[in-house]
Amino acid sequence: MADRFDLVVIGAGMVGLSTAWALHEGRPDLSIAVLEKESEVAAHQSGHNSGVVHSGVYYRPGTLKARLCREGRAKLLEFAAEEEIRCFPIGKVIVASRPEEVAMLATIEERARANGVPGVRRLSNEEFASRLPEVVGVASLEIPSAAIIDYREVALRLVDLLASVGVGTSLSSPVRSAAKNAEGWSLDTPSGTVVARYVINCAGLQSDLVARSMGVRPPVMIVPFRGDFYHLSPRLRSRITTLVYPVPDPEVPFLGVHLTPTVDGELLAGPNAALALSREGYHAGEWSLDELASMALFPGTLGLARRYGSYAAREWLKSWSRSEFLSAVRRLWPVVEESDLTGQSSGVRAQAVRPDGSLEDDFVLIRGSNSLHVLNAPSPAATAAFAIGKRVAREAGFLPSSESSGPASPGEPS
After folding, report:
1. Helix 322-332 with 300-320: angle, nearest 10 deg
2. Mean pLDDT, to the nearest integer, of 288-304?
3. Calpha distance 193→195 (Å, rounded)
4. 53 partner at 20 to 30 Å CA-CA among 85, 94, 149, 393?
């Protein structure tokens, strides 16, 4: 006999779990379940990142990223305090290493102020030299509200809280197929059939594929970009006590190799943004023939190569060459030696690409039949997750709409 629910959320990352929590808080009368294909929660983007709580400085005012980052950050910090989750407000300094980057630093400052980020200010040369004496910069911007956290801890706590109110999270439960029926959707999983009146797709790296299986023709394709991090040697850890970021390339939605203290006392350098050869390709050289074939058939792949080919080549090289990665780190912090690059870890960013090859720079929500699909939720989605969850619940019609919420895009039936 099939399990039946009013709502099923696919994906137990930060966005999926926060969506389930928002739905329960707003509609405790609904029966809700979360399905996760992996054997643990936060197995992909939510558990493979630098653990930064973003403040909302980079995003164009008025975009979903700008609004939801600010709203979600406040709720995340409140949640961390209530649940005693490690979270440290260590601030951030964005550094222009070259004179030609100062104009972009000014643009970031303007966006930060427009987005209501508190305490943003330029550091004087004397202040910068005192704070970060070994870091190279001609101008710098302080973001005191930035923080660090362990998103896996947040996700695990959400699972416990959901379980305490009767919302179960089923691990090792990939949705192998979906069929529309009179009740809504029949979802085939390894442990049996799950029937849902409504489905919310928060499947991250697999989100566009799940959407297609449910009759939606997505306007974007998820293309994986692997980000590699190096763990820096213990001798360096006490010398960087704040987040240190370069001025990012304005042509791409990536932030460049930066320095990140973690809640565990480590110091990370990274990530790069190398095009991965499989959706879950966490290691250089890992590839999938089927996924490569799908990318080759996607119209946006050629446009992607034309627009970003030289950038992609540089980022790819950093995955294979320690010296190239080291050069990117030393652009900010010249004291780092190759021997300081110790352990390595990686994450894969689910980046939506449009058919013309451009990179989607905002969150994307698409409606389908009795379903809603989150089709682009890379950084700062973990920071914004609580706000994204409420937004999704509203768009799906289970919470009252707010005046600030614009409509989601309708999905096209196949």
Report:
1. 90
2. 92
3. 7
4. 393
Q: For residue 1, is pLDDT > 70? A: no
Q: Is residue 60 domain-resident?
A: no
Integer Cα distance of 10 and 298 in angstroms: 25
Q: In this structure, are 171 and 257 located in the same domain?
A: no
Query: Tell me, what's the pLDDT at 200?
Result: 98
* C-alpha distances in Å from residue 173, one per residue of 34, 57, 216, 225: 9, 37, 22, 25
DSSP 29: T
Does the N-terminal peptide bond of residue 133 adopt cis geometry, omega within 30 degrees of 0?
Answer: no
Residue 107: both structure tokens together: 């643009």
- The Cα–Cα gap between 218 and 209 comes to 9
Q: For residue 256, what are its two tokens? A: 């460049």
User: How confident is the model over 362-369, as a mean pLDDT?
Assistant: 97
Nearest in space to 101 (alpha carbons), one of 286, 205, 284, 248: 248
pLDDT digits (tens, 9 = 90+) for 208-262: 999 999 999 999 999 999 999 999 999 999 999 999 999 999 888 899 999 999 9
Spatial CA neighbour of 314 closest among 274, 260, 281, 349 = 274
Task: Check which CATH number belongs to the domain holding 324 and give it.
Answer: 3.30.9
Reported as type and span, the H/E element at residue 400 is none
Measured CA to CA, the distance from residue 361 to residue 254 in angstroms comes to 10
As a whole number of angstroms, the distance between CA 167 and CA 180 comes to: 23
For residue 68, report the phi and psi dihedrals to the nearest 5 degrees: -75, -25
Q: What pLDDT is attached to residue 403?
A: 45
Place of tokens 């109110």: 165
Each residue's pLDDT tens digit, 168-198: 999 999 999 999 999 899 999 999 999 999 9
Look up the domain containing 123 and give its range: 92-144
pLDDT at residue number 35: 98
Q: Tell me what pLDDT residue 409 has.
A: 56
Give CA–CA dist 231/343, Å, rounded. Answer: 5
Q: Which residues of 68-98 are buried (b: 16+ CB within 10 A; e: fewer)?
A: bbbbbbebbbebbeeeebebeebbbbbbbbe
User: Rounded CA gap, 232 and 94, in Å?
Assistant: 20
Give yes or no: residues 195 and 229 share one domain.
no
- What are the φ and ψ backbone dihedral angles of 237, each rounded to 5 degrees? -60, -40
- The model's pLDDT over 51-98, given as tens digits with 9 standing for 90+, comes to 999 999 999 999 999 999 999 999 999 999 999 999 999 999 999 999
Which amino acid would we find at residue 366?
A: I
What type of residue is 346?
Answer: S
Please state, in angstroms and rounded to a whole number, the distance separating the CA atoms of residues 240 and 261.
7
